[in-house]
Amino acid sequence: MYQKSHLYSPSLKNLNTFAIDVTAKKIIFVKTIQSLIVTVQHCKCTHTPYIILGEGSNILFLENYAGVVIINRIKGMKITDKNKFWLLHILSGEKWHDVVKYTLKCNIFGLENLALIPGCIGSAAIQNIGAYGLEFKDICLYVDMLCLKSYKIHRIDVNSCEFSYRSSIFKHKYNIDCFIIAVGIKLTKKWTPIIFPLLNVNYNTQIKNLTPYKIFSEICKIRTKNLPNPKKIGNAGSFFKNPIITKQQANKMLSLYNLPCYPQENGLIKISGGWLIQKYRFKNINIGDAAIHKKKKLILINKKNATANEIINLAIIIHNGIMRKFNIFLEPEVDFIGIKGKVHPSKIFKS
Fold it and tell me: Which among 166, 168, 218, 310 is annotated as catalytic?
């Protein structure tokens, strides 16, 4: 049943990886689809705003939230053994990294390149998470979505998910009154390592001896060494996306700089946003406790008690600087949450 209101406003500091100290009217943890539906129905009947979070790993609360924050803890996994494939049906409240570790333990391979990515399964689909040569879309079979108007579950085939770089149909068309219940993942039993340049540092003479466990271990070492641990330093991973530009823009940049470029399937070119920030030389700007991470320049960090305003002001300085120097728009990767819900980036960053 829906919980009664408390007289205090509970803090969200431990429920968002940026560790922003804001409050909500109420926080409710849900462990079943039915309890989620009951909670949403009550919010709608009382005209109370609500948002649904997993680990809070890709958001920035801009201020205190005037509604109910629903924390998804709907967990479970079913593994089906086929002749040539493993089929995984995973409920959206499962932590992504826990699933990676569990499949390895079961000798089911194919997720190891996505080790140590924070967040839950539902967020993996929304963001189309990716790292070291693999994206969620490459292993996704379907996404089960609950419509929060009809309360019916619809299965969205991978080809209809409109996956692209850190984006999907769930971030746009289905970002309101929709909730991801589960995802389907398909992993081949004929395992082939996905070799990413960083992995070749230690294994360029031993590729034939690579195992999923070695790749998992190496990626965990790389991420632990280079990326800030949200449990120790508040952050939401990459604050900005790596820009994707036209070949003409890339050629112009390459005539001036030795710029890392990555051709995309659609003929466009992805360039390193971290390189742009490094090249600009922002001189380790700090605004209060908001700062640029020393190793990964796309990551903004909360060193201790940064406010949302401090992080936003730092982000605007970076965004405007890159626009002035390179004429490239840095698009934020994080979602912004205002007093009643999501705030479009255009309200913060000017093109």
Answer: 166
